[in-house]
Predict the structure.
Amino acid sequence: MIEEKMKYNAKIGWFDKLCGGAMFYLCRVLGWLPDCILYGCFAPFVYFVMYRLLHYRISVVRINLENSFPEKTEEELREIERKFYRHLSNVLVDSISFAGISRKKLATRIVYTNLDELREELNGRSWLCALGHYGSWEYFCGFAHFFSGYDMLGVYRPLHNKAFDYFYYNMRRRFGCTPVTMTGLLKSMVQNINAGKQFEVGLICDQTPPFYEIKHWFNFLNQPTPFFEGLERLASKFRLPIYFAHLKKTGKISYEITFERVYDGEEEFAEYELMQRYVEKLELMIRESPELWMWSHRRWKHKPGVEWKRRKSSY
């Protein structure tokens, strides 16, 4: 972990470190404020500015909701929309809070329901954890604190703004998680295997791949949808079990996660079968509480056929 941090720091300029470090320690101080101020005052203010005043990505949210739930009335869709923006406001405050949250308080924010069963099923094997942009996913960076004996590799996509990237990198490391880029993941996994270390890889798999990487379309929320296929490739290459992190919101700022097995690391499977299992579990979870998913992303910016023509014409 120290070596990874040194390599990362070498890539960041001093000015970005200064700005990112200032944001991190400012958020640490703000994170010590009582929840009644952070979530009772600041989060509603963020909601008002983002939703009522700026209409942040509201057209994207509405199109995504309408296409995903054609069976719902306009009133039902608007209710999901309002709940989503309130949740998104809380998620932004969660990022501030996470920079300074204590281990004791973190244990009240997110509860893992079946860690003993998970450890028994793994029986010492390394594994892959599949997540989505659902709930407050940054909290999962604290999982290493609750599941000792495993090195936690948290896969992320570097931000274009290096100062913000530095902020999130240091925030995610607080409880023992090692942030690794998608391009550096394979190397980190091989290093752990060669060192005889048990590891867990956290993958947020519902991001949109670039059009030139799309090889398969899944039926997801009533729409043809591409997914990054790294989850299935890694499971196949290293024969690693896959578990899906099924999240439920149990309070205004509290969640519980139950790990559901997607793949045992041994059975044979058809191409795209493991990704299909993940997609089905993700959709089921989203339909339970749709306001908890990240609807403001342009998740369906690629369309089948259209992108293939663009790809073909570039040859």
